[in-house]
Amino acid sequence: MTDRKDNAKLKGIRHRSIERVLIIISTIFAAVMLVLPLGYVIVQSFSKGAAFYLSAITTENVISALQLSLFAAGIALLVNTFFGIMAGILLTRYSFRGKQVLGALIDIPFSVSPVIAGLSYIMLFGRTGWLSPVVDDLNSLTGLGVKIVFALPGVVLATIFVTFPFISREIIPVLNAAGTDEEEAAGLMGAGAFTVFRRITLPHMKWALLYGMILCTARALGEFGAVNALSRTRGETFTLPLEVDALYLSGSADSIVAAFAVSSILVLMAMLLLVLKTFTEYHMNKTGRS
Amino acid sequence: MFVELQDINKSFGNVKASQGVSFGIEKGKLSALLGPSGSGKTTVLRMIAGLETADEGEIRIDGKRVNELEPRERGIGFVFQNYALFRYMNVYENIAFGLKVQKMSREEVKNRVEELLSLVELKGLEKRFPNELSGGQRQRVAFARALAPEPSVLLLDEPFAAIDAKVRGELRRWLRDMIHRVGITSIFVTHDQDEAVEVADGIIVMDKGRIEQTGTPGEIYRTPKTAFVAGFIGEPVIIKDFGRLKGFSAEGYDHAVIRPEFVEAFKSDNAHFKKILPFAEKGVIKDIVFRGNTYAVKLDVGGMELVCHRSLERRPIEIGEQMNVIVYRLFAVKGNDIELMKNGNLGDDSSDQLEKYLYGDSGYFVG
Question: Is A52 a member of any domain?
Fold first, then answer.
């Protein structure tokens, strides 16, 4: 399709002039809405010099926020990879009553505002919440004093909630397209369920799985609303986006530039994930075609 | 009987996929499950393999009930319709898979795979991936892979459906010879009667989840036992009021099934047919289809549309030409029962006459 002769004979919605207009509009849109703001963040973060930048991103609060962000994203990634694969296999390889409902439930985080998710966790685990007796019982049983709301577990839970659908939504179409014949064939030859998963199912979905994991990580690192609802203590339960917000709101000229400097860490991580995602997409298309 | 099914019932929701299915297959025989799509033949195959569970009835392999056994414990090799080759493994790994999961030693695996590769004549292609193979090569890999763990029964689901028509005939003969050489009891599913007749030792005809008839290809073809089989096998033409044909009485029958080989069309001046000319109908040629080795001639006989085959050696004919048409015999259908009915005017030796008329004394086709 890339060679000139084909392009000259574009039909239907595919016309030379339409192509040009679409390219121009899309490029301008992407530049103004997406690239420019991020570029501005980078430029602004260095507006007070490299020394200021370095000191701004190495304060105790920022280091703590970075650690918490990575920790929460890491746990969310692990948990959601496990449950995502489970849900993907359940929804594509088994048929049972209520399958449609379960499939729809997985998408709740896509449709519910993260702030509401955060608030609902406060209600659920807070002092009068349904699950607070359970948490109290567990604490007295184990002798631990685990707090959920306004503490690290709450932040992790909120992050898991908002990133829950990414992995299962990526692998479900791939598993459906791959079909069950190869798995059945392997099973007939004597392979157990785990061997079938490892040798047949996993190779089918590995690029989609990786893609979902990247999306999950990116979303987890960027989450603000749900975590904001469940987090109060700067330097303890603040993630990077919350720290940026706090710096920006404190209003002094220095802290605003510091907010940009901290933002640049998030932008950098996003860029890294974008490169990974593009690489994965390339592989997904390649294996999809063969 | 090596493989035996007894009163198998199976439903998917309201759909009855199998109703009272019973049949047996002798050791070492190659059988075909033949039926139109939706007749339940693939379900039967999958139940034997254990990929579906029968609601009622018993499945026995080598005298042992296998209903409760896991698929992998049944000793079955299965060739899937699209072969289901492991697309992320090369030919060697595909064939070796079943051996490796059985914890065979590396050396044994290697020997067995090489033995199979030379059996299916795919040596040198070990490193190829399934998407780098032709349809026929894929079928051979699927065949070798299914045979690798030395199953006692081989099941094949529409093994030729994914093959180009051009090489299908060659592959049919290849598979038949290969299965006979290996000597494994095999069942294959097909909707193509030519395939069943050409490849199988025995045929089981299915329709709507029931067994219609079982027998050798010759029996199924020559003596269909039910209305469905008569209307499915061969190139059947259904004629409602066949009593209008000279020599037949339609009283008490629903309709007739007439195959092309039951019909002869000849020109009035043909000396060989002089004796039966008075019993012939007048028919007009509506269409002539060139079939390579014969013509299929469509005739309008008093409003009835009959088809006969005509050798290329005989005198040329053309559309619109008037012919004399004689129907030697037909299958008269009443309900689900059928009866072979001979043309009353020709006497008992009508079949002998047919041969005489067709070949003449010198053994060659006559005009």
Answer: no
Please name the residue that has the structure tokens 């493994």. B89
DSSP-assigned letter for residue B339: E
Cα dihedral A204, A206, A208, A211 in deg (nearest 10)? -170
Top-confidence range, A12-21, A76-85, B261-270: A76-85
Average pLDDT of B131-149? 92
User: For residue range B95-114, what is the model confidence (pLDDT) as tens digits?
Assistant: 999 999 988 899 999 999 99
B80 touching chain A per CB within 8 A = yes
Domain assignment present for A208: yes
Beta strand pairing status for B15-25 and B3-12? antiparallel
Question: What domains can you pick out in chain B, each with its CATH number?
Answer: 3-225 (3.40.50.300), 237-359 (2.40.50.140)
* Whether residue A202 sits in one domain with residue A261: yes
For residues A94 and A219, state if they share a domain: yes
Nearest chain B Cα distance for residue A198, angstroms: 12
**Element at B78 (helix H, strand E):** strand B76-79
A89 and A219 inside one domain = yes
Nearest by CB to B101, which of A181, A184, A191?
A191
Task: Tell me the pLDDT tens digit for each residue of A139-163.
Answer: 888 888 788 888 899 999 999 999 9
Could you give the CA distance from residue A4 to residue A2 in angstroms, rounded to a whole number? 7
A63 and A16, same domain (yes or no)? no
- Asked if B359 reaches chain A (Cβ–Cβ under 8 Å), the answer is no
CB contact under 8 A, A203 and B85: no
Structure tokens given for B169: 């005939």
Q: Does residue A54 sit within a domain?
A: no
Nearest chain A Cα distance for residue B94, angstroms = 10
pLDDT surpasses 50 at B365: no
Cα–Cα dist B103/A278, whole Å: 40
pLDDT band, residue B291 (cuts 50/70/90):
confident
Alpha helix ranges (H) inside A126-192: 132-142, 152-163, 165-178, 181-188
Min Cα–Cα distance to chain B from A185, Å: 7
Average pLDDT, rounded, for chain A? 89
The partner residues of B330 in beta bridges, in order of sequence, read B341
Q: Which residues of A lie closer than 8 Å to B, measured between beta carbons? A: 181-182, 184-192, 195, 199-200, 203-204, 290
Phi, psi of B289 (to 5 degrees): -110, 125
Q: By CA distance, what is B95's nearest residue in A?
A: A189
Owning domain of residue A12: 1-45
Q: Which domain CATH number covers A119?
A: 1.10.3720.10
Contact A185 B101 (CB under 8 A): no
Contact status, residue B7 vs residue B57, Cβ threshold 8 Å? yes
Q: Is A84 a member of any domain?
A: yes
Minimal Cα–Cα distance from A93 to chain B, Å? 13
Q: Cβ A188–B49 below 8 Å, yes or no? A: yes
Q: Is B84 on the interface with A (CB under 8 A)?
A: yes
Instruction: Please answer yes or no on whether A189 and B149 come within 8 Å at the CB atom.
Output: yes
